[in-house]
Structures are given as C-alpha cells and as structure tokens.
Amino acid sequence: MSGWVKLHRQILEWEWYSDNNCFRLFLHLLLKANHKERRFKGMELEIGTIVTSRDLLARETGLTGQQIRTALNKLILTNEITSVSSPQGTIIQIVNYEKYQLATNEITNEQPTSNQRITTNNNVKNNKENTYRRFAHLSLSFQEYDKLSETWNADQINTTLDEIENYKKNSQYKSLFLTAKKWLGKNFPNGKQTELSLDMQFTRNILAQLNEKDDPNKYRNND
Fold first, then answer.
1. For the chain, how many helices (H) and strands (E)?
2. For residue 197, what pLDDT band results from cuts at 50, 70 and 90?
3. pLDDT tens across 96-133, in order?
4. Do 163 and 74 fall into the same domain?
5. What's 77's domain CATH number?
6. Which residues touch 97 (CB under 8 Å, ≥6 apart)?
7. Domain that holds residue 156
8. What CA–CA distance (Å, rounded) separates 201 from 199?
9. Buried (b) or exposed (e) across 75-91, using 16+ Cβ within 10 A?
10. Do 125 and 198 share a domain, yes or no?
11. Which of 24, 28, 172, 197 has most Cβ atoms within 10 angstroms of its Cβ?
12. What pLDDT score was predicted for residue 154?
C-alpha cells in the first residue's frame, strides 16, 4: 500500500469539509482504498475501490452505524463515491481517485475539475449511469432520487432503500424507483411531515404523562 495520499488546500472549500462525520469517513476511505488493481475473492477490483460494510466502517472510524449511512449517502449524492452491493460486501469506488495520488504526471491545479479525465473504466461506467444507489439487479438514478425527495426527506428515502435491499424477496421487483415510492407511501403517508408528526405526538405523550404525574388535582373529586 502506498504510504500517503495528497490533499490540496481546495479541500477547505469542499461542501462537506465542515461536516465532521462526512469528512472523516471520506478521508478514511481515501486511505483504505486500493492504490492499484487487485483481485479479491474472485473479483477484479479497480484502483480507488474498497470492499467493506457499514458495520466495519463504524468500528474503524468510531462513528455510529447511522452516522456512517448518512455520510455515505451524502458522498454518493454529490458523486464523491459510488456504492454497489455484492456477496463479498459493499464495493465503494472513489470517483476521481487519481486526483488524490502522487503520480509522475500529476493533475495540475489549472485543470478544471469538470474536465479532468477519469482513468478507470468503472468510473466512466458509473458516471454514465448516473446511479444514486445500486444493489442486486436494482438501481436508482439521481433524477429518480430527486423526484422522491420532492415528497420525502433523505432519511426517509435512505431508510426505505435499506429496507428494500435487506428484503429477501427483492428479486421480484423490476423498478427500484416504483418500489421505493410505494414503500415510502406506506411508511410515510404524510411525506416529509410524517416524522415530524410522530415526533410531536411522542413529545405530547411524554409531556402529558409528566403533567398527569405532577398534577395535584389528579385524584380530587371534581364535584
């Protein structure tokens, strides 16, 4: 494994720089990713990939499982990484990984990021597909995610996608977008307000119990 990766001062302007969990996870992935192609359990792994799991990442970084999931989804949303499930684990690919490596022909600061050439076939494929989430034979594009986010928030969407991924019979589904939309409609019928309503109801119940406990007139005859 190569001894180090390089970070330009422009990282200070990165949109996730102030997000401690997101930045910590991304830096961890950079340090753990393959710096050269290799085989792993019958798979050919591209440069800049890592085979892992959310539980393993949580143990390695000290973050919680929920924090890992949220950070991964943010990095996927802004196309910093791609994530594909496999029998061997979750394969995470760092997009434009070569930018973070010291090489003979380094990418100069004058080159616009949008015009930098992506050197691995896997990155090219993933960018063309514009995939937000993929597992088994199902995938959700960024455009489809945007449509879902008009009604539901990120946590609701990602929680539902996790449920579909872990559902043993998900092979029967043909469209992840339509399946997610149906499941979201059942789980969160009021859209983005569902969680807020449940939280408010929970808070009201707790307050009611506390008020009832502290009410000196609770057992007084009203007559």
1. 8, 7
2. very low
3. 887 776 543 343 444 444 444 444 445 444 444 577 88
4. no
5. 1.10.10.10
6. 30, 33, 47, 48, 120, 123
7. 141-215
8. 5
9. bbbeebbbbbeeeebbb
10. no
11. 28
12. 81
CA angle in degrees (0–180, nearest 5) for 48-53-57: 80
Same domain, 113 and 36: yes
| Token couple for 167 | 């559902």
pLDDT, residue 88, reads: 76
Same domain, 148 and 59: no
For residue 223, being part of any structural domain is answered with no
- In whole angstroms, give the CA distance from residue 108 to residue 222: 82
The position carrying tokens 């996608």 is 161
Q: Identify the H or E element spanning 119.
A: none
Q: Identify whether residues 10 and 55 lie together within a single domain.
A: yes
Q: Give the number of C-alpha atoms closer than 13 A to the C-alpha of residue 47, restricted to the C-beta side.
A: 14
For residues 26 and 71, what is the distance between their CA atoms, to the nearest angstrom? Answer: 8
Q: Say if residue 187 is in the same domain as residue 124.
A: no
CA–CA distance, 98 with 152 (Å, rounded to integer): 35
pTM: 0.48
Based on the fold, state whether residues 120 and 20 are members of the same structural domain. yes
- In the chain, the amino acid numbered 124 is V
Residue with tokens 């983005």, as numbered in its chain: 192
How many structural domains comprise the chain? 2
* Helical ranges in 40-139 per DSSP H: 54-61, 65-77, 121-129
In a domain, 136, yes or no: no
3-state class of 223 per DSSP?
coil
- The answer to whether 94 and 33 have CB atoms below 8 angstroms apart is yes
Q: Is residue 6 domain-resident? A: yes
